[in-house]
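User: I'm new to structure prediction. If I give you an amino acid sequence, what do you actually give back? Let's try with this one:
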Amino acid sequence: MVGKTIIRAKIATQVMFLVCGLALSSWAPMVPFAKDRLGLNDGELGLLLLFLGGGALLTMPLSGFLIGKIGSRKVILIAGLIAALVLPVLLTVTNSYLMAGVLFIFGCSIGGIDVAMNAHGVQVQNAMGRPIMSSLHGLFSVGGLFGSIGLGFLIKMGLNPIYAAVTIAILLVLLLLLQYRKLLDYQKEKEIIARFSHIDETKVSKGKFQWFRWSVLILGLMCFIAFLSEGAMLDWSAIFLRDHKGVSPEFTGIGYAAFSIAMAVMRLQGDRLVSKLNSHVVVIGGSLLAALGILIVVGSLWLSLTLFGFVLLGLGAANIVPVFFSEGGRIEGLSPTIAIPVISTMGYAGQLAGPALLGAIAQYFSLIIAFETIALLFIVVALIYKIRK
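Assistant: Good question. You get back a string of structure tokens that encode the predicted 3D arrangement of the chain. For your 389 residues, that looks like this:
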């Protein structure tokens, strides 16, 4: 029987996924404001976004080290508070170089909380003895929904954009402080790792470069592609809708909102879906459905059909990443404390740094070609997973 401590920890973990999704997606409706305020073209914006990804990628491996030293809940608290404090600043900076620095810090905070909450979620899942990762990622998508439309809604209601961002930041701080002590402490995490990892530590690889193993790298590569689609929706969907579909700026977050709703609904049902079907169907079928959604978004002449494409993308991509995280925790002869941070780092590189690549494609070709590239990459994921299995 699962104890009250674990139940409280599960709820607190759900809140942390919600906080991370809310913080990150609040940046989506800020992107057009930042582009116009700083006078950037698509290529320059893509380069600027690289600093957000760079901060995350720098912090993710460090977060794995810190989790081993002080526990995941302290890392979650510190990173979450930094994200909340930096968020309103993103709407005030008028210098491109300073903006790069602020985005770098924001990326560091997002990278830290992301790795820590996933590591914490894996331990709670082990303690509960049943899948919960899809539903946890579903709460991240719920946060993405509220973040993407919440800021725009507050602005539309007449609130100054900076005050709207401060309101969201205060909400983030309150959620963090209210749930922090319900997360597993360092000693409890160590106990769970020892009792529920299902790994014979005498057989675990002790080499210095454990993360070079093919089983880890291939999961990380596929995570990179899957997360790239989420990063593209976060950083480019608002601009795509404004520049190519004629949507007014205050409603440009609607594409990411449709994507997030679909992803949240599917992920909240994902644990049951994965148990009923299998990872083969979820990953390959989901990848092909996501590719179809992107092609509809690009080719549609009607906004309603475009939003339907965003929905298909969210439905298809929803449970791909949770499957990869779960498989990462079951790699034979490799501790999850090594595999999960490595796969997280490679995966979130797609979400946070990948959109910069799309910016380069958009600059030299077009934003439409950049979106079509995402569809092609989803097909690549389906092929790799089929061959791998």
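You can read the tokens as a compact description of the fold. Here is one thing that stands out. Confidence is low (pLDDT under 50) at residues 201-208.
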